Each structure stands twice: as C-alpha cells, then as structure tokens.
Amino acid sequence: MSVEEKVARYRTVSLHIKELESEQSQLKEELHAYFDGRFGENQKGKAEIGDYVVQRQIRSMDSYAEENLIARLEELQLEDCIMTVKKPNKEKIDAALTLGILSGDQLKDCILHKLSKALIVKEK
C-alpha cells in the first residue's frame, strides 16, 4: 500500500470511527431510556432482548467539594486532615524570568519538554 493509499485509508477510517461513536452514543441514550422506563430511573436491570441479554449497572461515586470540605475542617479545627501541596506558580516564575530575577540557565534542568504527535487528514 502506497503512502497516498494509507493516507486515504486513514482518513476513511477516522471518519467511520466518528460516525460509529456518534451512533453508539445515540443507541446508548435510547437503551438507557428503555431501562429507565422498564426498571426505573437510575436503577440496575437485566433484560432478555431477542438473542441478547442486556444488563445495566449503576455505579455511584462520591467525591468531596474541596473548598467546602476545607472550610468545614478548619471550622472543626482539624487542620491535620488538610494536605498542603507545594506547587510551582507558573505565572510568578514567568514574571521572575521576565524581570531577570531568574534566568533560564538556573531552571534548565527543571524544565520537562514534551512533544505530542497528531495527524490531521482533510480532503482537498
């Protein structure tokens, strides 16, 4: 297969994947609506549909509203339950570099350089 044929095939496959993902998303919504109607909203269920057994699981996850939780822990004087995270302040570092307080040489072994690759194929 030539490079041109590979590019054409890549483009075709990419478009097909987008179409399939869109269709899958729509079907998923419709099946969830079916299960909501049959078993109740956000309820697990199992149904035999034609040659298929379809099972819906419901997962529940809890997370903390961090700002509210920190305020509450401080009110309760439970600062030990609050983690202090040291993190570089990019804006202040950039300002210090601009003002000459820091030099690029001082930070060169602290900078991680990442590359990412992307292909964009469009028809002419």
For the biggest sheet, the summary is: 2 strands, antiparallel
> Biggest sheet, strands in spatial order?
1-2
Rg to the nearest angstrom? 27 Å
Give a count of the beta strands, DSSP E runs of length 2 or more.
Answer: 2
Approximately how much beta-strand content do the residues carry?
5-15%
Give helix % range.
40-55%
**Order of helices and strands, N to C?**
HEEHHH
Shape: flat
| Number of DSSP helical runs | 4
Structural class: mainly alpha
- The stretches of 5 or more residues where confidence is low (pLDDT under 50) are none
The whole-number mean of residue pLDDT values reads 93
Give the distance, in angstroms, between the N- and C-terminal Cα atoms.
21 Å
Summarize the structure.
Helices cover 49% and strands 8% of the residues.
Structural description of this entry:
Keywords: Coiled coil. Residues 10-37 form a coiled coil. With 124 residues, the chain is mainly alpha-helical. It has a domain at 3-56. 49% of the residues lie in helices and 8% in strands. The protein has helices spanning 3-39, 66-75, 90-99, 104-107, and strands at residues 45-49, 52-56. It has a two-stranded antiparallel ribbon with strand order 1-2. It is flat and about 70 Å long.
Key structural traits:
coiled coil, 124 residues
SSE order and pairing:
Layout: H1 3-39, E1 45-49, E2 52-56, H2 66-75, H3 90-99, H4 104-107
Antiparallel strand pairs: 1-2
Keywords: Coiled coil
Coiled coil: 10-37
